[in-house]
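Need tokens for this chain, all 167 residues.
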Amino acid sequence: MRKRIGMVFQQFNLFPNMTVLENIMEAPVHVLGISKADAKRRAHELLEQVGLPDKADAHPTSLSGGQQQRVAIARCLAMDPEILLLDEVTSALDPEVVGEVLGILRKIAETTDVTMLIVTHEMQFARDVSNRVLMFDGGRIVEEGAPSDIFDNPQEQRTKDFLSAVS
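Here are the structure tokens for all 167 residues:
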């Protein structure tokens, strides 16, 4: 089951002693048993997809936070997950690079059939890319529905309060 689910964390969790390319290749080679040549080819494709084709030989510590997060997304996608869990992937980023990362996620949503479960406070992004939105409070779902229902006509007071606070 874990092989079919990918996770992108708030704090990138890249291996600092490995290059970007090695970070992306590690799990496909050692967990999925993919050949190094195939993993390397796929890693280069993913670096192109996340806009970092020139960073293959760089180490994570030489990258900006936004670049590290894009590498973390590429590393996750290298496992060809069916489900992608994204936990506040923009929270540790400077406001100017948030858009870059959200743009990559938007492209993934538009061009793949990967299901994404996104925990975010980026409400416009959630509205734009979601098929379904859930509002949590205290670890419980308080409201769920289509983005238009949740954002335009929330039924629960907690949802109304949250949306008025973030807009």
